[in-house]
Amino acid sequence: MLLIFNGLTKGKMEFDLENPLTGFEEHHFDAVSALFASESDHMPSFLAFKSTDVRFCLRRHSLSLIFQAQSAHKFDRYITYLAVNYIDRFLSEQVVTVNKPWIVRILVIASLSLASKMKNVDLSLSDIQRDVGLFFDAQSIHRMESLILTTLEWRLRSITPFSFLHFCMSIFQLGDSSLTQPLKRRASDIIFSTQYEIKLFEYKPSTIAASALLCAADELIPLQFSSFLAAISECQYLTKEELMNALAAIREMLIEGRESTVDSESCSTLTPKSVLDCE
Fold it and tell me: Which residues are the signal sequence here (predicted)?
């Protein structure tokens, strides 16, 4: 199965998080409608993490290891974002209990490997394994990659908030085109930051995208915030109540300075039960 995946990705254009449906049959339909119709299939479960402290702490430990590797090797942060998305969705579906300490590390390595393949970037897995503190043979990593592929039903072209940025920007109708890129960059930074917050799992990617752009607009062009909010609230694909709730949650996150905080100290001793039969 993994050989099929490697064959599909080899030599292909790199996956663009802002255009996840590029090159696929979904483009025979209206692209925007297809994105909104499919986004729920790419969301982690808020309730899965809320129901157990084990999953919550395993996630924080995983994020700590991923951002440690990203900091050390300076690879594209979109690879990091994709890998975290895979981990969140994987943990949402898999039953994990306390046991063996290596599962978090092999999950991180396999997720980074899959994300790098989607982005057509070569990562040194040996260097990353050195960072996370354990070495695995190629067969074990491939088996974990296969398990992730199966669990996610091969949906690695993740539909994320980045997929909706262009659509939401078009609703804003900026009068000054020079503001487009600064607004998009700030919104993107906010979207990267929202991945830390489990409470935002309950909001769809499109809602996160719209809320991030509103936050960016409030910071950069506050005089236009009210008109932007009115325009985007009328979008047929978005629910105003959810938009306002997500906006409040993101604002709270920004005010409290949680944009770049991953603390796994309280969770680093947890050891989840193996989901691989590698005895």
Answer: none
